[in-house]
Amino acid sequence: MNISNLVRQHTAALRALLVLTVILGIGYPVFIWLVAQIPGLRGNADGSLVEVNGNPVGSSLIGQSFTDADGNPLPRYFQSRPSNAGTGYDPMSSGAGNLGPESIVDQPDKPSLLTQVCQRSLAVGELDGVSGARPFCTGGGVGAVLSVIGPRDARGNVIHPTQVVSVNEPCDTTRTPFLNTYEGVRVECAKAGEDYSAGLIVPVPGSAPVNPAVPADAVTASGSGLDPHISVAYAELQVNRVAKARGMSPDAVRQLVADHTEGRTLGVFGEPRVNVLELNIALDSR
To answer: What is the dihedral sign for C-alpha 46, 265, 274, 135?
Structure first.
């Protein structure tokens, strides 16, 4: 290859680099920015910030906590759904807990999804004055799951249980298992460090109602961990507590909930929902 060909190739490559840099590195971002400034899009492009007296207090697209310095829910505010994004609603750590319906046995350093749901349900029930009982949850707020140990048939079912352990309830001197007996065998509580995976894992539905008082979105986090909305049912559950804390009538609070309830997307997608931040700002403005 002679020098002149080499120079021509490098010159062409340099021209292509400059042209593409101008088009893709400058022109395209400027074009997208200009489109984002169109009325109706500008708010979303700028972060959908919500301001009070000229000061930003949050985004209508990102949830946040309404708790005190110790993490306890503030009774005068509607509470958001749980979040697994970082320490909660962190846009830089958006994500789910990656636990599914099969997560029912607690690990030493991590509670199962079932136990997390049970714990949250009890806490919400106590805060809002309703029963936090749920199917497959013990009265103490952990997953009601047994390990049934004994000989099995060809299909894997235990024929004659020899030992039954409540795997999510550790032993101590004050606690008894949520169930006294299972198929005639006394139920034991789990011992620290013991492995009960050899047994047949059996979730126990218990006597809690099939439709618990605490809605599902009050005890489960969204896929992004940033959901700013709650269901209408969860908002209704909190009305009396918020009204009492603020000295308002429940009907007045309920009307504000209705005013801040959004319908289904395009009229068909999803469910009606309530933006928690905007609702709490409306409460403070009164």
So the answer is: negative
Examine the pLDDT at 133 and tell me if it is beyond 90.
yes
**Nearest-angstrom CA–CA distance, 261 and 274:** 5
The helix-helix angle for 276-285 and 232-246 (nearest 10°) equals 20
Angstrom distances, CA of residue 201 to CA of 88, 158, 210: 32, 10, 21
The beta strand positions in the chain, using DSSP E, are 49-52, 55-59, 145-149, 163-170, 181-182, 185-190, 200-203, 229-231, 261-262, 273-275
Please tell me the pTM assigned to this model. Answer: 0.81
Average pLDDT over residues 150-156: 90
- CA-to-CA separations, 284 to 11, 122, 219, 253, in angstroms, rounded: 65, 28, 26, 11
Residues near 111 by beta carbon (within 8 Å), at least 6 away in sequence: 119, 142
